[in-house]
Amino acid sequence: MGDKDQESEVEEADEEAKVDKAPPTVVPGDEDTTSGRRHRKWLVAVIVAVVVVVVAGLAGWRVVENRRHGSALESCNRAAKSLQERTSFAKMARYREASGVKADEVKDAKTVTNMSSSVKAAGGLKPSLIQCNASMSTGELNTAVSKAKKLDSEYEAVSKAAKAVLASRDAKTLDDAKAALNTKKDEASKLLGDSDGKVADNATRDNLQTAINQAGQIKGDEAKAYQDAAGSLQTAIDRVNESMQAKSQADQQAAAQAAQEQAAQHRAQRQGATQRRQVSSSNRQRGSTQTRRPSYRPSGNRGGGGGGSSQAPATPSAPQGGGSNWRDRLNRPDTSMHGCNSDGLCVLG
What are the transmembrane regions (predicted)? Predict the structure, then answer.
């Protein structure tokens, strides 16, 4: 059955081909109908073709637009990521640190000026958020890309300026640390010589000498090493000064105590001399009073045998021995009983 059907279809096709090749039969009254059918077929074909072209164009445009949107989204993400790295928390902190450095804190003041200009060009040190969403249009994504690239370029300049400022500051810090250490070494060396024999504890001077030797061995470009050495020297210097002050105070106290003892001794000597003078004066007064008394006694009446006639008192007889009279003895100091010498100085006991 299948073969017969195929043969039948072939025969029908051949007949149709013969009909098509045969000249058209003109039927009176059907010309307009045939022409209209042909026109409609042509119009339909044109419309179909146009629709196909439009659909194809729309599809192609859509494909191209999707590619453009995807490319813009990718570019936006890359630009946003680069800007995010350039303005990370750590880097923004570094930018702010450099921005706070003053001209007198750096070796080259131009670096501070350049830093200020770069920060101003970036609109200040504030993080900028760039959004890149798939829901954004291609135009919006391209705008975000342009903004991100502009900010990234500005913060790149800020980064370079900050690096220069901090490097200049570190260089000046290193120079200052070296100069300070040299000054401190000179001070320590002078104190070491001036404090000889003037400290309460000589170990402080030994420690100072050790600190001076260690400071002379510092090398390299680390400012902290020089600063630490200067700090050690200052500590040793302070201890020597404290020891010198302790000895000075001890010496002053000893001198004050010695002066007090000497003054007490002088007072005791003066009091003793005063007492001796008072005793001597009292003895002179007593000796003078005794030597001025008369050394004779009036004689009694000598009665004769008869008669009671009165006689004038006899004059005192001349003193015995020495050939001197009683007037000489009256005026001579009496040293026999009171221990007084011829000068009037009397000794008790």
Answer: 42-61
